[in-house]
Each structure stands twice: as structure tokens, then as C-alpha cells.
Amino acid sequence: MDLRPVGYVIGLLVAVLGLAMFVPLLVDVAEGREQWPVFLQSAFITILGGTAIALACASGVREGLTIQQTFLLTTTVWVALPAFGALPFVLGATDARAVDAVFEAMSGMTTTGATVFSGLDTLPKGLLIWRAILQWLGGIGIIVVAMVFLPELRVGGMQIFKSESFDTLGKILPRAGQIATQISGIYVAFTLICALIYLYFGMNLFDATSHAMTTISTGGFANYDASFSTFSGPLEYAAAIFMILAALPFVRYVQLINGNPLALHRDPQVRGFVMTVAVLVLLLVVLLEEDVHFGLEQALREALFNVTSIISGTGYASVDYMQWGSFAVVLFFFIGLIGGCAGSTACSIKIFRYQLLFASIRSQLQRIRSPHGIFTPRYDGKPVAEDVLASVMSFFMFFVVTLGVVAVALSLTGLDFVTSVSGAGAALGNIGPGLGDIIGPAGNFATLNDTAKWILIAAMLIGRLELMVVYVLFTVTFWKA
Question: How far apart are CA 399 and CA 41, in angstroms?
Fold first, then answer.
């Protein structure tokens, strides 16, 4: 396999990441805390490194990529960018060790939102905005991957969306650029509108900007140790609305602005996601009124915000929901394993896979009841191909097995059962907070041992790239192809 085309693209993206470091540099200059040299050094190393990689591989540039090269590119980009993105954390005020810096950068780029840093309230604003930028770039990046690369690579049932991602075989990068251009305007517009609404409801300009970036990317990095509980009232409603918008497929917004007003309504993913959120919020409102004795408005606000935050994988926390009782704790664990829509910034298993799973189960039950009948699973009114169903079933199997393996691996490092299982789910589902006193909504991942952190770093990468994109790289046949 010719690795030069892959290296060329990675080099260019790394150089672009280096250019992005000038934003926090300017923020630090404006703040006057003399932290800006950190980003100047980091930008120099990153731009120089990316440019060197691109120039070294430039001789192998061609118009298209093979499937093997695309698999490799998709994974190595999410390894290279966090590696360089970690530099400001090592050189900056956090003085982070390598494992903590890479953990934070990987959590940012994969929009997981788990953090190993405490004292966020006093960190230089340059580092805070850099965390937000990592998530914002990771959010728009995963939309392109989900719309272009994964359908082409036939991963986890994503090939069902191939017709909507255009015919990209043999010319993936040019088409990816066209699609990214179409959705980037919408992504930026959502971020600006979200920031303006945050400003209107009382956030200062810096908080509004950084939190808008981590809301639209469904990343969940906050500027305060208390996460979103620093804010309350209308800001929670506003955040919930934008988290829902970010968890919907961005291709529908493209169709919407191009004259198809029913694009969102007609998408079974959208209907399923909105209905799921509504049912979960209603269930939790009843629980909070009866058992926690919240008033109706507070119960509705906290249920809407926290359900939306966890199901979309944003990971903000406005309260310590560990205090709501065992039912709520278990409910939040499983909510995180649902996820948003394909082609959004949301994470985890995704709602369409559950819809396909239920369609397959329904079809199988019909066959049992009427053995001589012909029953075909359908999605959005269309028959679902066998390879799509097989891919979805494989994804579920790999997800469950991986979750179990990661949980066992974490327990072997000395972590307790709740921390191991919820940590595995939080990392693999890119959710953010786990459960328990250590990594729950009131804690963070700082006190975990180094081995556990490296395991979680790998889990965040695997989960963000839909598992099999990473796993295929470890097969002999991939490298022989």
C-alpha cells in the first residue's frame, strides 16, 4: 500500500491545526497573562511538523484514495491531531504529563468531554478556548467522516446512507471537500446563533463563545469545574435546544435550506430521536417530582437538560444526578448508549441502528407467526439489504464485546466495578462523565491511574470511529490487499 497520499493529507490537516493555535494565542495576548508563548511554540512545532510530513509525501498525491488508504487515513487523522493538539497542555499552565495531555486532546477531538484537569475556573483563557476549539474541529470533522467515509467503507450499517452522501468511490477526498463546504456554513451559523443566545441570557462573551463551540460539537467541555451548573434557568433550555439540533443529521439541514421544508420531518432518525428524548424526559420529570420533590418547572428543566446532554453525548452536567436515586443512575447509563442521529456531531450507537434492529426483530417475529410468509425489514419505507442488517448486527456485537473488554481491563488496573463499567461506556460511547464518586457528574478522570487513562484514550478513538474502522487495521488481510 502506498502510504504517501495518506501522509500528505495528514500533514496538511496537522498544519491547519497549527494555524488554529493562533486563536488561543491572541486570546492570551488580550488577557495579558503572558501565556501566549505556549501557543506560539506549539504552533511552530505543529505547522513545521505537518508541513514536513506533507512535503515528504507530496510525490504520492493523486486524485482518489483506495478503500485501504481511506480506512488508514480515517484512523490516523484521529491519532495525529490529538497528539499535536496535546502540546499546549504539556507546555502551558497545566504542565500536564504526556498521558494527561493526550487524554484531554483525544477527549476533545472525539468530542467525548471527559477531562483530567481540575481548577478550570483559574486556567488561562487561551487553554480553555483551545479545549473548545479541539471539540469544535472534532465535531465538524466527524460529520464529514459520517457522511462521506463511513457509508463508503460500509461500516456499521452506514452504507444505508450512501446514496445521500453521493457516489464517492475512487474520489473520496474531492467529494469530501465539496460536502464539507456545504455543511460548514450551517455548522458555523449554529455556533454563532448559539453564542448570541447564550450572551442574551447572561453569559459573558468568552463563556458564550466557548460553550457555543462545545454545545454544537456535542463535546461538553466547560470552563468551570462545576460544568454547566454554573449557569441555570433559561440557559439550560437554550443549551438543550442546541444539543438536540446538533444531534440531528446535518444533511437534512442542507436539504432544508435548499427548498425541502419537510426534510427533517420525513427522516425516521429524526422522528425516532425526538420521540425517545420526549419519552425519557417525561419519565424523569415524574421521577423528580415524586422522589426528589422538585417543582414542575425545575423537574422539566433538569430532566430536559441532562437527558439531552447524555443522549447526545455532550456530557454537560447541571446537577449531580447521582443523588437522584438508583433508577435515575441506571437510566442515565443506558441513555448514553443510545446516541443521536447518523451524520450529526452526536456519538454512541446511534438511533438508526436501534430502528434497524427493531425492524429486523419485528420481521423475524412475523416469520415465526407465519412461516410461509415473506417479510422484509424496511427502513424509511424501503427494504433493508441483508448486508446492511449484517453490518448493524456486527456493530452491536463488537460494541458489547468491546465494552466488556474495556470494563474488564479497567477493573484489572484497580478501579471499582461502577467506575470500570461506566468509564468504559463513557469513553466508548464518547459520552463524557461516567457514574460513581470518581468519574461521575461531580468528578473527573484526574485520579485514575496512567494505565486506565491509556485504555480510555484507545476506547475514545475506537468509539468515535465506529469500531470497525479501527479494528480492520489489525487484520492481516487489510495489509495484504
Answer: 40
